[in-house]
Amino acid sequence: MSTPSQDGKDAAPTPEALREQVERARDDLGMTVEALAAKADVKAQAKEKAAEIKERAVVVTDRIREKTARAARLVKDKTPGPFLGKASDAAVQVHDTATRVGRLAVERTPDPVREKAGAAATLTEGKRAPLLAAGAALVAVLLVRRSRRRR
């Protein structure tokens, strides 16, 4: 790579050795720049993190489904046959009755009331928790008043 001097020590490097050093330095610099660019690319990092989280969520969801199905099978296996039939029949009856009541309510509700109810439903979307709490409080107040009247 370098031409030795007369006393055995290295002299100035040859042009070929210098070219090799420059090439290695360029490669090292290129890798360093790529690493820095990857660290500075926040959008790409966020996408990678989102993909990781999505993958974990899929795994967790699958596990939950498996465990739920296993629990349902255990309950079904341990529940006596007559109770399963009765529970199934009751569920069908409740569903049918709720469907009929819903249809009747829609048929017999005047159009202006239906429109106002639709507007109220649109307004309350995304605010279920406070509305449920307020409804529960209202029911509690009504029950307390009712119990006081009976005394």
Radius of gyration: 37 Å
Class by SSE composition: mainly alpha
Strand segment count:
2
Query: Count of helices?
Result: 5
Fraction of helical residues:
over 70%
Mean pLDDT: 79
Biggest sheet: strand arrangement: 1-2
Order of helices and strands: EEHHHHH
Report the sheet-strand fraction: under 5%
Q: Would you write up a description of this structure?
A:
This protein is mainly alpha-helical and 151 residues long. The protein has five helices and two strands, in the order ββααααα. It has a two-stranded antiparallel ribbon. The chain is elongated. The model has no long low-confidence stretch (mean pLDDT 79).
Describe the structure using short key phrases:
two-stranded antiparallel sheet; 151 residues; 85% helix; mainly alpha; single chain
Write the layout of secondary structure elements.
Layout (H helix, E strand, L loop, with lengths): L1 E3 L5 E4 L1 H26 L1 H37 L2 H28 L2 H14 L3 H23 L1
Antiparallel strand pairs: 1-2
